[in-house]
Amino acid sequence: MSITEIIFWGLSVLALFCAIMVVASKSPVHSILYLIGVFFAISGHYILMNAQFLAIVNIIVYAGAIMVLFLFVVMLMNLNADAEPKKNRYLQFAGLISGGCLFLVLVAAVTRSADAGRVMQLGTGESGLIKNLGRILFNEYVIPFEISSVLFLSAMIGAVVIGKKN
Amino acid sequence: MSNVLQLVWLIPALPLIGFLLNGLGRKMLSKTMAGIVGSGTVLLAFLVSLYVFFQVKGGNSHVAHYFNFINIEGLKIGFDFQVDPLSSIFLLIITGVGFLIHVYSTSYMHEEDPKDFAKYFAHLNLFVFSMLLLVMGANYVIMFIGWEGVGLCSYLLIGYWFKNTNYNNAAKKAFIMNRIGDLGFLLAVFWLISKTGSADYHEVFANLSKLTTRDITGITLLLFVGATGKSAQIPLYTWLPDAMAGPTPVSALIHAATMVTAGIYMIARSNVLYTMAPATQTVVAVVGLATAILAATIALKQNDIKKVLAYSTVSQLGYMFLGLGVGAFTGAVFHVMTHAFFKALLFLGGGSVIHAMGGEQDIRNMGGLKKHMRITHITFLLACFAIAGMPPFSGFFSKDEILAAAYEKNPVLWGIGVAGAMMTAFYMFRLYAMTFLGNFRGTHEQEHHLHESPAAMTLPLIVLAILSVIGGFIGVPEVFMHGGHRLEEFLAPVFAQSNALIKEHHALSHSQEYMLMGISVAAALAALAFAWNKFSKYRKSDKEEAGLGKVLENKWYVDELYDSIIVKPVLAIGKYFNNVVEKRGIDGFVNGVGRAVNYGSRQIRLLQSGQVGAYVLMMVLGILVFFIVQLFL
Amino acid sequence: MEIKWYIGLAVALFCTGVVGVLTRRNSIIIFMCIELMLNAVNLLLVAFSKMHAASPVAQALPNVASDAQLFVFFIMVVAAAEVSVGLAIIVMMYRNIHSVDINFLNRLKN
After folding, report:
1. How would you classify residue B29: left for phi > 0, otherwise alpha for psi between -120 and 50, otherwise beta?
2. What is the pLDDT of residues B543-600, one digit of tens each?
3. Mutate which of A7, A29, A40, A49 to test chain C, going by most C C-beta atoms within 10 A?
4. Which CATH number fits domain C3-109: 1.10.287.3510, 1.25.40.10, 3.40.50.2300, 1.10.287.130?
């Protein structure tokens, strides 16, 4: 087993464990913290695939900004208490079963695919470097990039309008 | 001969033009114009027919092909017209008698609104067109078109005064009865096409070897069913007396002279088939004779002038079928022709009487019209002599020929036939005597109103009377004059094929023939004298008929019989279907579907709980199904 | 490394997110599960980009692999905007009904 594979399995186990804990933990704050763990594990994967820019952005945007926003909301509203006093067992069971089925179906589909065995580039490759991505982003994708700023603006205005007390 | 082919299309086309002009322009045309258009087109058609007649005289037969009517794999039916001696005789009868009746109608229908007047002529022209199509078609399909067309026109004209419910019912009855027969005709044509691959007369008769005896018997029987419907034979004859609801000229044209002879024409046209099916011929002869007798007995006791004539028509048609049944095709066609003359004359004379009497049709209220209506009287008397078979009037020759042929086949048929002829003489002279002789029995206003009809009505009467008197001389029997039977010579090519099939032909000796004629004439004369004597001094009496007389007056209760064995059960079935199958079955099913959907939707509605979680679950399940279908199925 | 392991990981993360959405009723946790699903997809996209980078086509066209990563970048951008609006909505909802339980959001049936 090479070092990359060891790292891959370690990060995968970490990501899955944290993901399950996100769903399973009772307290929203714990969920948020586990979710941050998932994001870090995924960023690790990005680094493993030499997608450095995305790894950094993932940590900054998701783990840094978005999750902090979540924490703020949860804490400001004091939602840490268990908000689910009465649970519908059947619905939960049904959700678990159908999610499991979805997983099985997708895995089965992947194993049947001819491309499932294709090898990927790990640790090397320049496609994920900031220099390359930046060149493409500001050449070919400059208009979507600019439009995304409009999206942000509208999202900001929307958040303010919605959050405003009427 | 190409000019014949170029002209034959004109014969049906002219009345069609008349129909279109009168039918479409009925609001614009004045009565005079409608009459001129209606009669003129038929007159022109008559002239063309006359020309065609002289062209085919030598036994020529022409088929004019216009376009393919039906053209599918293995079956080609052309829109073809055929003119040969047989059809040209019918063309002359239809257009000639038709023209006279059109002229007569211009006067008879004069009291109608201009709109209705034009409508009447349009229908009459359409009828002539259909009838011409029927006789000119060169295959059974074209004949069937005409066959249906005349049925339709008959319906339209019987129900001409459609505001009267009884008249409408009569029209419906005629149409439905005809439809029953038409089904037989249609099945016969299908059978013929499936076996021989063609409906063309020429091809069918040339390919008779493809048919087994069973096929021929079946086909001819089915064709005969068609003929019984159109030509009012047992068991489908009851519509014809009811058809007298129409205007009298219509009765004369359609229900006496032309349309009802379509069955005769069809069988005469298919003579080869019938000659090859002796079983069917026997059926035809027996049915014809039975109809002749039955209708004659009914006619003995009818008091409505038109009803008597109607039953007389049924009876005479029975004679024609008898002729066809015993193989005397020429005789049957001959009788069609003479019958067309004298029966049209009788009807028109009757119409003239009704006209004079102001719509009165009951002969018990007439009498003594001799003084007031001289032309009508004389022509009517001549027609009565003709129909009674008095020599030398036309009916004598034609009826005698049929009876002689019947005697050759079986003397019993002849005996019954003569009895029928006797009855014919009796009821015709009963009718004549009660109408024209004795004292007037109607009201004073009617007596005051009595007058001879105008020239437009009497002229056709005179023409037809002349034809009724001399019409027989084209078919003088061999006994009287060698080579006297011109009609037989003329028609010989048409019947040549079937004549060749009849192996033994034992002709009657001359003395036998004289004896037969003598007996039938004597019998008719006796009946005539008896009726004349008895009814010329008829007095009205309130005495109810009893016994057989009552049965006859009520037409053997055949209508009631049909009513109880067919109409009532059919209505009961209809009621059952309406009340049970329709209400419970079909409505129940439809309502059940509605109720099921209602119930089902009420249950499914509960899924729409408003719970977002449930919706998401459904969505995931849906995605799952999609994946499974997409990836694994 | 074969691509199927990454696909398996991404599918597992995604299905965990699905199960979370289906079983939890706290709207904030549901929201987080949605983020989890988004990240699973992001991971998969990057993995595919690296798979294509290893193929001969990518040797000729260097941009092929980079496009997918830029796509992920844009997904993050949109996700950030979505989170800000979504959290605003949750705050609003809490203000109105004093709960973040989605079972109280059953007005859709009317």
Report:
1. beta
2. 666 677 777 777 778 888 888 888 888 889 988 888 888 888 888 899 999 999 999 9
3. A49
4. 1.10.287.3510
